[in-house]
């Protein structure tokens, strides 16, 4: 195989969608995949199957790649520091990734920066939690995602499972929020920063269900505040590639940071079909220190709805049904086998009328998930 | 490797760009590539390296693929008939491909259909050519492309090289044309047909240099005529996937068919960034008999300029220069080594102002080709 320009660690759908953009830009990617037929391994010929927690495996993958980026934030930071010492540019670097890996470190750093966060404290014992007060959201500081590692509790007794996990825990106030927003930013090592329009992210059972771009009826001052906040966090934490800042819009009209992600993010999938430059292309341009592309929307509204594993087993066969019902919804399947509630794809609709766009995207996703039109 | 849904014969840039769309739709592609590192082999893990004129090689590639499509029109028709007899759906089929492979057969069939073509006749001897008259365009009926196998002659003596080629020759009148247009149509085996906006194709040295979508100042009646003509040819010849009908707009305001191509075509590359559904996605949807997507333009103007091999050797390194100059031009590199005048990529700009769009696309392409801005 010829020398790759970029190593991507992790073979999920984010790496798969990066590859679509890499093909256009002529970027040769080498992939570290968790298995021989994971989502991105299906579409990246130059891949190694192995364990991203093993340093020698990482070394063999990045061997002749000057730049390394990631499908997820779980690579051990000490390995990334070793790779950097050995001459590879890890983007984002471990000094930035820390704040996406460790929610305790993230809260401390953002609070130091004066970035508004929910009230929070690290809790080691039920007594600490009693002191913090109820109701509380208790989270493992590391390793949680999509609602996993998160408990909403109204007493120390309800936090038994959390304390039994043996992991470091963070308690946060249960924010009274109107909705969730996401500020997505692309940044390059040269310091160029570009923000996508602020979107609304709608969750079901702690998992992103649909995203509306831009966030409907968002106060322009709040949109500007979200944008500035995203750009400031990206710059001060020295993030490279895509940063997603997930935000609460509180019922009293403030923004509070919920989570950070340092990679292309589910709340940015709409950009593939809805923006001048997709988040995947701008992630690649960012990590390779290429000039970034426009983050402008190409349509007044875009709606992305996740396809979760449901009643339909054969998504490829169902594609014909979906496209017959909604020929102009853009379909993105991840090449994954169907398991209950697993993210196996997404659909995006765009156009001038939000109701129409929402209806089309939801109907297409429901046909993939349930096999029947959503009503 | 799991069972592919589609076999693609030929590993050039058309197959490479099909793969970008296949990734989104979740279509597993198996590729027959001419070499281990050709354009599409770089991005399709499930590929076989071999010779598309060898039946056993073709059989091994299509083995478990229900549908077969093509990067080019050069697979021997007798092999395609064998594959069909063995249960594979070749799309387009050999009965249609014949008219893209053999210009003599194409002229005869279109003329029988009443489709306007340049005056023409098959010529076997210089005497035949004298009888046809001068000036004449002499073409090999098979195997010519991008200006190869075409001679403009003003006497039989000037046709010496053509006759010396030993190939069947077609003589055509030298059409007095204002410009070249292209009518691009997607069609499925179920008979669904969708036309893209008619574009203007500008050639240099017999090779497509740039494409403007839609064709500027085109008489709406001619546009409608081109569209009807494209759809009629696609339907009557039973083309599946993309058909490109290259047309002359004569100085006296008529349309004459120049060439047919039955695959995604250079005059449709603008659709990746400029249309609701790219020609590559609609080719896949067509050949797999999925409902077709909208062929509407997403922007008032789109301009595609080919990147031909020139002074710049390292296109990947030059990418940073191009994107710095034109961050919002969409770059498509084919992973090919640079040779003089070889198509190694293309760029597309879009927007509301044609002059601006043309300027940006040309400047980006010139930076790739010449290493300096176009003036």
List the helices and strands and how they pair.
The structure is a homodimer of 375-residue chains.
Chain A: E1 6-9, H1 13-25, E2 29-33, E3 47-49, H2 55-62, E4 67-70, H3 77-85, E5 89-90, H4 94-101, H5 103-112, E6 120-123, H6 126-132, E7 136-140, E8 150-153, H7 160-164, E9 169-173, E10 177-187, E11 193-195, E12 199-204, E13 207-213, H8 220-236, E14 241-250, E15 255-261, H9 271-274, H10 279-287, E16 301-308, H11 315-325, E17 330-333, E18 343-351, H12 354-369
Parallel strand pairs in A: 1-2, 1-4, 2-3, 4-5
Antiparallel strand pairs in A: 6-9, 7-8, 7-9, 10-11, 10-12, 10-14, 12-13, 13-16, 14-15, 16-18, 17-18
Calculate the mean pLDDT score of chain A and round it: 95
* Helix-strand string of chain A: EHEEHEHEHHEHEEHEEEEEHEEHHEHEEH
Summarize the biggest pleated sheet of chain A: 9 strands, antiparallel
Relative strand content of chain A: 25-35%
CATH topology of the largest domain in chain A: D-amino Acid Aminotransferase, Chain A, domain 1
Number of helices of chain A: 12
- CATH level-four homologous superfamily name of the largest domain in chain A: ATP-grasp fold, B domain
Shape field of chain A: globular
Spans of chain A of at least 5 consecutive residues whose pLDDT stays below 50 are none
CATH class of the largest domain in chain A: Alpha Beta
Name of the CATH architecture of the largest domain in chain A:
2-Layer Sandwich
**Total count of strands of chain A:** 18
- Provide the number of structural domains of chain A: 3
Q: Structural class given helices, strands, pairing of chain A?
A: alpha+beta
Q: What's the N-to-C terminus distance of chain A?
A: 50 Å
Provide the gyration radius of chain A in Å: 20 Å
Task: Tell me the greatest interface.
Answer: A-B, 46 and 46 residues
Oligomer: homodimer
Level of helix content of chain A?
25-40%
